[in-house]
Amino acid sequence: MGSYRVAAICLCCFVCSCGAREEEKEEVLQTVNNSLGYVAQSLTKKEYLAGDVLSVADIVVWGAIYPLVIDGTSLPDELSSLKGWFKKVTELDQCQKAAESLLKGQGPSVFKAFLQKLPAPVLVSEKSLSNEQEGEDTAARLLSEEDIAAATEAWKKGLHDVPKPKPQQQPILPIDGEKNMLITSALPYVNNVPHLGNIIGSVLSADVFARYCRLRDWNTLLVCGTDEYGTATETKAMEEGLTPQQICDKYNAVHTAIYKWFNISFDYFGRTTTPHQTKIAQDIFHRLLERGFLLEDTVEQLRCETCQRFLADRFVEGICPFCNYDEARGDQCDKCGKLINAVELKTSVQSVCKQSPIVKSSRHLFLDLPKLEERLEKWLDQSLATGDWTTNARYITRSWLRDGLKPRCITRDLKWGTPVPLDGFRDKVFYVWFDAPIGYISITANYTDQWEKWWKNPQQVQLYNFMAKDNVPFHSVIFPSCLLGVEDNYTVVNHLIATEYLNYEDGKFSKSRGVGVFGDMAQDTGIPADIWRFYLLYVRPEGQDSAFSWSDLMLKNNSELLNNLGNFVNRYTTR
Ligand SMILES: *[C@@H]1O[C@H](CO)[C@@H](O)[C@H](O)[C@H]1NC(C)=O
Ligand SMILES: *[C@@H]1O[C@H](CO)[C@@H](O)[C@H](O)[C@H]1NC(C)=O
Ligand SMILES: *[C@@H]1O[C@H](CO)[C@@H](O)[C@H](O)[C@H]1NC(C)=O
Ligand SMILES: *[C@@H]1O[C@H](CO)[C@@H](O)[C@H](O)[C@H]1NC(C)=O
Ligand SMILES: CC(=O)N[C@H]1CO[C@H](CO)[C@@H](O)[C@@H]1O
Question: What residue range is the signal peptide (predicted)?
Fold first, then answer.
């Protein structure tokens, strides 16, 4: 069934010409041709796809290729068996009726609007669906004769002739007329020890990309740091009997040590609890306020009377109002991916004390996303067309826009956060999702006082954001909306690289249940960091969830790293 699916996805390109580049179209043609050839081949031996009687497979495939070959004449002659089958299925009474009700006499253009909303076809999925042999063919086809000749030439010359990377100036700054790469890895929450999924999801992926960029001699700045504000920290502080600041100091050191051990090449690893954060976040806030992009409204908030405090959405659990998943968090449902307001949960309990909270109202400030939507879409059109966005990032972003944007509350009744600098709200702080992405900027400001050369320089800087997919909406919709609304020449994301999830053996990583491998434990195993790095990159959840497995780690260490890569390098270096 795999190749049918690819065919169905690729057909979109024909019907809607959704901006696929020329070589992509050729690739698509090839893919569809192969898949159709495959279907035609199987139809030479039998009447219908699954045998001699019509089955659901016929209907599905017929429906998928219908937009392309509405009258069957566009099918090449080599595919005569497919042609005959298509005609036969099309003539079925039910299929005729279905087609008529859909087309309403307008022809294939009726599919356009629908198909344009689908994620852009990814050709990589062809590789993962087919077997390894075909995968290699695809890779080979992407290289031109010249590429191969150049590679052979370079190989013959040996390592001495490889140009040395230019020395790095300090601080690293963009340079006129050169390629300037600003790379961020999602800021890890300070109250946790990161697990392998967190490490490959953003930190290690960003590291590898940054190393590549430096080898290419591009001006590259990789920044990250701990995200330290919010209730998560307050709660952890209560648990451990420390102040929030002490918790941040303690876990910032834990994170720093783990990434150092994994040899992550951050140019600067900072934190969000700095005066720079306060200054920049408040400046962004003031500019949004002056430009009329903030609204005031009353919010129903959950409050725990037992603990005497308002509850952050993340600390409430209940039933998702959209998909009825019964372990949804108050901010987001892990099952359907929708963002939630905690008060919308059907029956909820606080995740710490397990008491049911009460609803209480207070005045808050909202980011007027509907008012920013137009400029966001304009910018997104351009960024998606010219940048590297992973399929999941494109898909999540599109579905957010399709659902329409609503105003989002940016303030919270908490203490541990960036204070809101406005009368009437001075006892509140910024909500973490508003505050945290500003951390990229303030952390850079903590690295160099010339930070604006990176962050207010969209003409000369390419911004790459690395993250796991649950972080996509904040980076593709909400934060860009803020930066565009501020009208201060900010650098807005050009490339968004999101991973799926890494599972642990057959389940999820879970600190509370002690399941999984955490950064500090990886170190204690005695297995060197480079083997961890290799294996995590090998199982990187790129197009779909993947899993960490101990036995697979041993296997890949021996087969891929030692036998294949090791022997290859060995043969080269001992020539
Ligand atoms: C399409 O596939 C058929 C075999 O199914 C092959 O004969 C033909 O050359 C292919 N056409 C293109 C354009 O690749
Ligand atoms: C860490 O990476 C650097 C290159 O960025 C390399 O020179 C160094 O040997 C690595 N350290 C370890 C312990 O692998
Ligand atoms: C934005 O910044 C760049 C580089 O600093 C500058 O060349 C450009 O003129 C600025 N654009 C605006 C609209 O301020
Ligand atoms: C990985 O392979 C090396 C070389 O054979 C071996 O020394 C090491 O013990 C292996 N590590 C693991 C975790 O299997
Ligand atoms: C260069 C710079 O601004 N460094 C600051 C980074 O943040 C820490 C913590 O707030 C300060 O102590 C540094 O002075």
Answer: 1-20
Tens digit of pLDDT per residue, the chain (575 long)? Answer: 333 344 344 444 444 344 444 555 456 556 677 778 888 888 888 889 888 889 888 998 888 888 777 765 667 777 888 888 988 998 899 888 888 888 777 766 677 666 655 554 444 433 333 333 444 444 445 778 888 888 888 888 877 777 777 888 899 999 999 999 999 999 999 988 999 999 999 999 999 999 999 988 999 999 999 999 988 888 889 889 999 999 999 999 999 999 999 999 999 999 999 999 999 999 999 999 999 999 999 988 888 888 777 887 777 888 898 898 888 888 888 888 788 888 888 877 776 677 788 888 889 999 999 999 999 999 999 999 999 999 999 999 999 998 889 999 999 888 899 999 999 999 999 998 899 999 999 999 999 999 999 999 999 999 999 999 999 999 999 999 999 999 999 999 999 999 999 998 878 887 666 778 888 889 999 999 999 999 999 999 988 889 999 999 999 999 889 888 888 888 877 65
Residue 188 is part of which domain span?
Answer: 156-282+429-573
- Read off the tokens for 188: 């890890």
Does the CB atom of residue 245 touch ligand 3 within 6 A?
no
Measured from the CB, is residue 452 less than 6 Å from ligand 3? Answer: no
509: how many CB neighbours lie within 10 A of its CB?
A: 20
Residue nearest to atom 2 of ligand 3 (CA): 457
Q: How far is the CA of 159 from the centre of ligand 4 (A)?
A: 27
Nearest CA to ligand 2 atom 12: 263
Q: Say which ligand is closest to the CA of 174.
A: 3
Is 552 near ligand 4, meaning CB less than 6 Å away? no
Specify if 24 maps to a domain.
yes
Q: Which of 80, 105, 123 is the last residue of a domain?
A: 123
* Tokens encoding 558: 């021996």
- In total, the chain counts a number of residues equal to 575
